[in-house]
Amino acid sequence: MARPLCLLFDCDGTLVDSEPLLADEMETSLTAAGLPFQASDYIGEFRGARFRHIVAELERRHGAVDPLHLEVLERDMRANLNRRLATDLKPITGATEALASLTGHPMGVVSNGPVNKIRTSLMATRLEAVFGDHLFSAYEAQCWKPDPCLYHHAASLMGYAAEDCVAIDDAIVGVKAALAAGMTVIHLNRFPDAEQTPEGAITITSMFQLPTVISRLESTRHLATSQA
């Protein structure tokens, strides 16, 4: 009998509602550094992107900033964000219930964020016990979405082939990364009026829908195995 599908979750915007807090801190820090930025820019243009990619694009538009200043800026921004995550963060609606329904599956978190931010977010929302140490950060792998290597890295450490993994991600960069990695991909599209799910991914608009989709994928997989 085949092992249960391995479920790999993005963190920000998929499990936890951290993006408004992150966008707010970025607006304060980047604007103070001379890189005009509004919280709405993150949600509208840069959602899920690596922080340094965002900085590079803003520098292209507005001029370069001293690298040492940027290093201090990022350190202080992340410290402020971690304090807010620990006190203000909430899980994405339906995430707690979905995870409770999927406990028979091995699960990991695959994020472009630093591992301490992932851990802080999961602890603040009481989701850390679900994942244990299965936290896969782009900063540790040195490879960021939309490059598929981060999802490959996570699958390998979970002991699964890519085709036996399901990636659940809300950001287009993450969806594209997981598709390129050869995984089944579920796009949590919380902004269906503004975003289009990339071809090849399955769309859900609420985490409450996730257990039903996973059950359907498992049924299809078992049927294919029995007919092979």
UniProtKB/TrEMBL annotation:
Transmembrane segments: none annotated. The keyword Membrane does not apply. One of its GO terms (molecular function) is metal ion binding. It comes from the Bacteria. Keywords: Hydrolase, Magnesium, Metal-binding. Its cofactor is Mg(2+). It holds the Pfam family Hydrolase. NCBIfam families: HAD-SF-IA-v3. Belongs to the HAD-like hydrolase superfamily. CbbY/CbbZ/Gph/YieH family. This is HAD superfamily hydrolase (TIGR01509 family). It comes from Halomonas stenophila.
